[in-house]
Amino acid sequence: MSLLEIENLVVEFQTASGPFRAVDGVSLKVDEGEVLAIVGESGSGKSVSMLAAMGLLPWTAKVTADKLLFNGRDMQKMSDADRRKIIGREISMIFQEPVASLNPCFTVGYQIEEVLRVHTDLNRKARRDRAIELFQLVGIPNPEERLGHFPHQMSGGQCQRVMIATALACNPKLLIADEPTTALDVTIQKQILDLLMKLQAEHGMGLIMITHDMGVVAETADRVIVQYKGRKIEEADVLSLFQNPRSVYTKALLSALPENAVGGRLPTITENLTDQQIFEGAVR
């Protein structure tokens, strides 16, 4: 049984010029212990798809799906209270901008302990011990001292590690990592990716990696979904995708890797491609 199973997910937002369809008929599955990468350029609906699945979009968004199951449970039929019991405990998300996602008014230790206070029966001392253990797990030095720091007192890489520790606090079955290495230097990026893959393997979690970086996909994923303008263009195992991409768009996306730069310039992904050509043969 799949951990997360989505069929025909549609997300619409109301704008001044009318409804805007940000996600158009996306379907996906992820199993326990599997790493699924969702890749595409900015605005392709990657993050919105996962926020919709978790019920974290604003009430103004219209979300529909033929099927939206987590661990066999229908999330569309859950009450808000039941959904809140799952989010943060069984499904966790590492958000794209760690500094912006952490509350600047509270220490990072308080914010981790808050997750444990909501989702576990641990007493105050046990919550602090668990927070220290989590900081050690993600490689934050001097964890006892760092628990008392505010987000602005920590570097971007350290805040990202705090976000990972918070997401892992309750040993979730599914972890969604939304651009987990954005705005980090190359050395820190590798450390964060290595850490995520190590923890994923150790805990047997399902992992959804949202990214526009094909290098990250090659290093981490078992399967890949390619999205463009809210639609799923292609889905394949990672080796097949890189060796034999089927869609015109996926080929264009792979051609935009840095090693393919000519004269210091990368090819434009949609150069000479119409939407009709891009969507031709798309997986629905």
UniProtKB/TrEMBL annotation:
Keywords, A to Z, come to: ATP-binding, Cell membrane, Membrane, Nucleotide-binding, Transport
Q: Which InterPro entries match?
A: AAA+_ATPase, ABC_Ni/Peptide_Import, ABC_transporter-like_ATP-bd, ABC_transporter-like_CS, P-loop_NTPase
Task: Using the record's annotation, list all stretches that form the ABC transporter domain.
Answer: 4-254
Does the keyword field hold tRNA-binding? no
- Domain of life of the native organism: Bacteria
The answer to keyword Disulfide bond applying to this record is no
Q: Which GO terms describe its biological process?
A: transmembrane transport
Membrane topology designation = Peripheral membrane protein
Q: Which GO terms describe its cellular component?
A: plasma membrane
**GO MF terms held by the record:** ATP binding; ATP hydrolysis activity
Location(s), subcellular: Cell inner membrane
Q: Name one Pfam family in it.
A: ABC_tran
Principal subcellular localization: membrane
Q: Provide the family line.
A: Belongs to the ABC transporter superfamily.
Q: What is this protein called?
A: Dipeptide transport system ATP-binding protein
Give the organism, scientific name: Mycoplana azooxidifex
